[in-house]
Specification:
Oligomer: single chain
Helix content: 25-40%
Number of strands: 13
Structural class: alpha/beta
Order of helices and strands: EHEEEHEHEEHEEEHEEHEHHHHH
Mean pLDDT: 87
Low-confidence stretches: 1-14, 320-343
Radius of gyration: 20 Å
Distance between the termini: 24 Å
Length: about 350
């Protein structure tokens, strides 16, 4: 933990970086900028890909990286992006959108564009940050786009690949899906909760994911592998919800709603509301297990995630009821295309 109270991944030795260049997509995101900083500190020459005109590129100021503008969904904008690159970290993705076509355009086609550019440039190692949601028995459009992108990466013979599947991500500023769920829980004096709350999750601290990604840079052991970057402890969705509220001095009773009823309401809302507050994707995220075992990553690359209770104690010290609203609203939900998948 740093002097300002934030948590950063521990320093570690990654593979030899002398004279080698790495490309990071989604580099202006919270996790992307942390990864850029870690790679620069480890001696890599970093090329950071950001959306044209992205104001969040200010996060990269002073880090000593090369900033390149481009949009993975526009193939021509990637021309030359992978030239001279040894390793690609592909984080850029859309997680939530009211336009269902965006998932395919950015997550699948965007990955296809980057894979083609990396193959043409003879990149050695392509590291793709996917999602735990690809394991759901009934996939959402988002999950399907991420699974198809996995197949594109794994099916390219021109480079070695590694696929990473994070679970629900949180950090000191919240995390996009985390903040959205927390705001929902705080909205009601009695929380209408989707389902019985028994789905098992493994929330993961963002710093642990960055630490794990840094361990892949310059390391050959991960070639052809898929690793679960999940948290160190399983917890039910219901218990997680209460834990989140308690850490913001706001615990309250729940009333559990049948999943079938929630799906019916979501369908009706989709037909009559432009941006429905309840969607099938949100329901899937609450009722599906995401209990991905990180043992292989621990064994092979030394990935050591903290458990959710320890992580929350560090990130979200319990506050007074008067301070809670400011603490919640301090969570910085960033533009969707800039955050890698953190589900």
């Amino acid at each position: 933990m740093t002097t300002d109270g934030t948590i950063r991944p521990a320093r570690l030795s990654v593979g030899s970086a002398a004279g080698r260049t790495v490309l990071v997509t989604g580099a202006a995101g919270v996790m992307g900028s942390r990864l850029v900083r870690g790679l620069v500190d480890a001696g890599w020459s970093v090329r950071a890909l950001v959306l044209p005109g992205d104001p969040l590129r200010a996060r990269l100021a002073g880090l000593g990286c090369q900033i390149r503008e481009g949009d993975v969904s526009v193939g021509d904008s990637l021309q030359g992006a992978c030239d001279g690159v040894d390793t690609v970290f592909h984080l850029a993705a859309v997680i939530i959108s009211s336009d269902p076509t965006v998932f395919d355009r950015v997550n699948r086609q965007g990955t296809a564009n980057l894979v083609a550019a990396a193959a043409a440039a003879r990149v050695r190692h392509f590291i793709y940050v996917s999602s735990a949601s690809v394991t759901y028995p009934h996939r959402t459009l988002y999950a399907e786009s991420k699974l198809q992108a996995e197949h594109l990466v794994a099916g390219e013979a021109a480079f070695q690949h590694t696929i990473i599947r994070p679970t629900l991500v949180y950090d000191e500023t919240g995390g996009q899906e985390f903040v959205m769920f927390l705001d929902y829980l705080r909205r009601f004096p009695v929380v209408p909760f989707i389902g019985d709350g028994r789905a098992i999750k493994r929330p993961v601290f963002a710093g642990d994911i960055v630490d794990g990604l840094l361990r892949l840079a310059g390391s050959d052991v991960s070639f052809g592998k898929t690793y679960n970057f999940s948290g160190g402890e399983p917890i039910s969705m219901g218990d997680l919800a209460h834990l989140m509220l308690r850490h913001h001095a706001a615990d309250r009773p729940f009333v559990h709603l049948p999943v079938w009823l929630c799906r019916l309401v979501a369908l009706a809302m989709r037909l009559i509301v432009d941006r429905p507050p309840l969607t099938s994707s949100a329901i899937a995220g609450i009722v599906n297990d995401a209990d991905l075992d990180p043992a292989r990553a621990t064994r092979e690359i030394g990935y050591q995630p903290v458990g959710v209770r320890e992580g929350f104690a560090r990130c979200f010290p319990v506050v007074s009821p008067e301070a809670a609203p400011q603490t919640i609203r301090g969570g910085q939900v960033q533009p969707l295309a800039q955050e890698g998948n953190w589900k």
